[in-house]
Specification:
With 228 residues, chain A is α+β, with helices and mostly antiparallel strands. In chain A, 14% of the residues lie in helices and 29% in strands. Chain B has a domain of 150 residues: F-spondin domain (Immunoglobulin-like, Sandwich). In chain B, strands 1, 2, 3, 4, 5, 6, 7, 8, 9 and 10 form a ten-stranded antiparallel β-sheet that branches. Classes of the chains: A alpha+beta (228), B alpha+beta (253). Chains A and B meet through β6, β7 and β9 of A and α1 of B.
């Protein structure tokens, strides 16, 4: 466990103590671990919402808010889009990039009365790619007893909004330092399972990526625990 | 630890997911009291979505069959019927063998290739064929030598509900993955290139692998290259994939 998690855990327990154990709220901790070789994650977005809320649907076009995350790692548009949405009970954002091998824990609190129809979704970008994300979806919050955890291994998806050119200047992560969001859509047009990156060593001569940036599924572990 | 559906379902299935969530709780309650009534599913919907970015499915075979029928078994050698499907997309042999034992099946619901990102659905009615309690699905992946998307011997739940399944790509192990243009006939080298793929597959590749593996296994993926007129492979980089390659949603009514 790194120091940041320990600090977060300490903060959240202090906060809970300060709240005096509010009986009307249910609180969950979501821990994400980056299990890729060399794909930092953009700041995580976690959303507790009713089951008719979806960040995206497989084989359907990505929203522009998702495109902002998938191409540039910017989750402010998705978070802004949930404001005033009565289906959304709580949101949380990671504090920054999450490096390979590292974990971060977010805390979400929502009224107990909303629990019955509350489901957790979370999404983040693999930043050394054109438009890869990983996500979890539809994890029931009401099914978790106090102290119980639910663990999901998550795969990588291709947002389908930007061609996987791997070209210099097209990837926002540290492997390139290139462009993030671009409104143009020049890819498959819908969200799919990501085909992986090829890299220069893999034979793509104009790729800015090296072989360490390749990945296979799964790419992340999400663990959800009810703590209050 | 609870399992969750993880399929990112489309909008039209949301109400069915809601049904499942309700039913899951009901099933748990029944399981706890130990009074679950055993009954066999009479009708199921099977929706299949190609979730790859650039890989095509040849005509699909979807079958509800008995316990003693096995369409394929990872680790074992492919049957001749599986080989014909995996190398050339010919599902007639598997269909005949299953039909002969009373299986309920649907062939080619997409009326041709199932494109990347596209979906198709079939309804299987097992009313008059009790014992067809297992679901299998196969279709060849193009462009590959003997790759196929597969589900084998999946026990159909008896409880009504919506069940998402992620399907992997398998290699039949019957043909060398040379990744160059050739034949779809069983035992003949190379990959078939039907008209819709003509412009997407390169030519002049020198070949990747020269040896068939001899047993069905999880496909290692295609190598591909960025050279349409040479290189090792006639397959392009844009036709690579990672598992899973299909998302299936089974609705037990």
């Amino acid at each position: 466990m790194n120091i940041r998690i320990a600090t977060l855990a300490l903060c959240s327990s202090l906060l809970l103590t300060a709240c005096g154990g509010d009986d009307d709220m249910a609180t969950f901790e979501l821990t994400v671990t980056n299990i890729t070789s060399a794909q930092p994650f953009s700041p995580l977005t976690a959303i507790a919402a009713a089951d008719d809320f979806q960040i995206f649907r497989l084989a359907e076009p990505a929203s522009e808010a998702l495109e902002q995350i998938a191409e540039g790692g910017d989750n402010s548009f998705l978070l802004a889009s949930t404001e005033g949405d009565e289906r959304v009970f709580a949101t949380a954002s990671g504090m920054g990039a999450l490096m390979p091998g590292m974990s971060e824990t977010l805390t979400l609190s929502l009224p107990v009365e909303d629990l019955d129809n509350a489901y957790l979704s979370a999404v983040t970008m693999l930043v050394n790619t054109n438009d890869a994300i990983t996500a979890v979806h539809d994890i029931s919050l009401s099914s978790l007893a106090m102290g119980e955890s639910h663990r999901v291994m998550a795969r990588a998806y291709d947002a389908g909004t930007e061609a996987n050119s791997e070209a210099q200047g097209s990837i926002p992560g540290p492997a390139d330092g290139g462009e993030g969001f671009n409104a143009e859509r020049d890819d498959t047009g819908s969200v799919r399972v990501h085909p992986g990156v090829i890299s220069m060593a893999g034979g793509k001569a104009d790729s800015v990526l090296s072989e360490v940036h390749r990945f296979d599924n799964p790419v992340a572990v999400f663990s959800l625990t009810r703590i209050e | 630890m609870a399992e969750c559906p993880h399929g990112f379902l489309s909008a039209d299935k949301i109400h069915r997911v809601n049904l499942m969530k309700t039913l899951t709780k009901a099933v748990m309650a029944i399981a706890l009291t130990g009074t679950a009534a055993m009954s066999y599913a009479a009708e199921i919907d099977v929706e299949i979505t190609n979730v790859t970015t650039g890989t095509y499915f040849t005509p699909l075979l979807i079958a509800a069959h008995s316990d003693n029928q096995v369409v394929f078994e990872p680790g074992a050698a492919a049957t001749a019927e599986l080989q014909a499907m995996a190398e050339g997309g010919d599902i007639s042999g598997i269909a005949e063998a299953l039909s002969a034992t009373g299986a309920v099946l649907e062939e080619n619901p997409a009326a041709g290739l199932l494109m990347p990102g596209a979906s198709t659905m079939v309804t299987l009615n097992t009313d008059n064929a009790s014992g067809n309690d297992y679901l299998s699905i196969v279709a060849m992946l193009l462009p590959t030598n003997d790759g196929f998307v597969g589900l084998t011997h999946w026990e159909i739940p008896t409880e009504p509900g919506v069940y998402p399944i992620a399907l992997n790509a398998y290699d039949a192990g019957t043909e060398a993955n040379d990744e160059i243009r050739g034949s779809g006939a069983p035992g003949e080298a190379g990959l078939p290139v039907p008209p819709p793929l003509e412009d997407m597959v390169g030519m002049g590749g020198t070949g990747v692998s020269a040896e068939a593996e001899g047993f069905v296994h999880v496909h290692r993926g295609v190598l591909g290259d960025g050279d349409d007129e040479g290189g090792m492979s006639d397959i392009g980089f844009s036709q690579r994939w990672l598992n899973p390659v299909a998302q299936v949603v089974v609705t037990v009514k």
